[in-house]
Amino acid sequence: MTDKEAALLLQHARAVRRRAYAPYSKFRVGAALLASDGTIYTGANIENSSYGLTVCAERVALQTAVAAGRRRFRGLVVVANGPKLVGPCGACRQVLAEFAPDLEIVLARPRGPGKRRRLRDLLPEAFSGAFLRR
To answer: The pTM is what?
Structure first.
């Protein structure tokens, strides 16, 4: 992912973060996912009073992209309001690894610069479909 693409994804993630539905935690997250064809898909976290039904911003973006027929991705930006940079949760890391185990991820706050990471570094030795083949 180029610096220009990362900056554009950052703008999208910051914008969609404002639309998060987080009435319980007040922890708003926005994500912008770059498909290999250059299309950007966004997602915001959606909480539920039954906490286990909450959906993370990263999975909303990925599932929207997959529903649109995309299967290959080059970059992801995650923006969250916290005192530290916040990466995708373990469930999101595993779901992302299904499609892009080497995905480049930028972790950012609502203001300021972000930090680049690779999904393979955030989720070493991820489970994959290869384990299911005999």
So the answer is: 0.94
Does residue 5 carry a catalytic annotation?
no
Where do the domains of the chain lie? Answer: 3-132
Here the contacts of 16-22 (C-beta below 8 Å, separation 24 or greater) are 16/42, 16/43, 16/44, 16/57, 17/44, 17/57, 17/79, 17/80, 17/81, 17/110, 18/44, 19/44, 20/44, 20/45, 20/46, 20/57, 21/45, 21/46, 21/47, 22/47
Among 47, 58, 104, 125, the active-site one is 58
Mean pLDDT in consecutive groups of 10 residues from the start of the chain, 134 residues = 96 98 96 98 97 96 98 98 91 97 96 93 90 78
The CATH number of domain 3-132 is 1.10.3210.10: no
